C-alpha cells in the first residue's frame, strides 16, 4: 500500500479528517456486505446481543445499549428490533425478553461468519500491537477533546 503523504507530512494531517474517512470506509463496507445477505448493521447488533447473551435480555435492555451506536437513536433502534421480530429471527415474550428462533440462530451464524471475514479484511497487514495502539490513541483523542464514547 502507498500512503498519502510522507511521514513528515502525515504527522501534520488532521485526525478529524482521517478518523472520519476511516469510519466512512469501514461502515460503508460493513453495511453493504450485510445488505447483501439481507440485513442492516443495527439488526446485526440486535441479533448479536440476543445470540450472545448468557441470560435473556429485554427489549429495553437491548434498545438502551444499542441506541447510541453510531447515533442510531431510540426510535430507529426500536424499529430495528421490530424488524428482527418481523423477519422471524427473534421472539419477544410478554415481559419483553428477546429470544433467538432457530431461523435467527442460522442467520446469526451466517452474519457472524461474514463479520469474521470483514474483520480479517480490515485487519490485513495490521498487527495486534498496531491495532491496540490505534484504539488507545483514538480514545486519548476522545478524552482530550472532552468527548464521550459509547462505553462512558
Report on this model:
- With about 150 residues, the protein is mainly α.
- It contains seven helices and two strands; from the N terminus they run αααααββαα.
- The protein has helices spanning about 5-10, 15-35, 40-50, 60-65, 75-85, 100-120, 130-145, and strands spanning about 90, 100.
- It has a two-stranded antiparallel ribbon.
- A hairpin with a 5-residue loop joins strand 1 and strand 2.
- Helix 2 runs antiparallel to helix 6, helix 3 (about 40-50) packs across helix 5 (about 75-85) and helix 4 (about 60-65) packs across helix 5 (about 75-85).
- The model has no long low-confidence stretch (mean pLDDT about 95).
Helix and strand topology:
Elements: H1 7-10, H2 15-36, H3 41-52, H4 59-66, H5 74-86, E1 90-92, E2 98-100, H6 102-122, H7 128-144
Antiparallel strand pairs: 1-2
Helix pairs in contact: 2-6, 3-5, 3-6, 4-5
Number of helices: 7
What percentage of the residues does DSSP assign to strands (E)? under 5%
Strand order of the largest sheet: 1-2
Instruction: Outline the biggest β-sheet.
Output: 2 strands, antiparallel
Distance between the termini: 35 Å
| Mean pLDDT, all residues | 93
The helix fraction, in percent, is 55-70%
Taking all Cα atoms into account, the compactness measure Rg is 18 Å
The succession of helices and strands, N to C, reads HHHHHEEHH
Structural classification? mainly alpha
Tally of strands: 2
Q: How is the quaternary structure best described?
A: single chain
Overall geometry: elongated
Low-confidence stretches: none
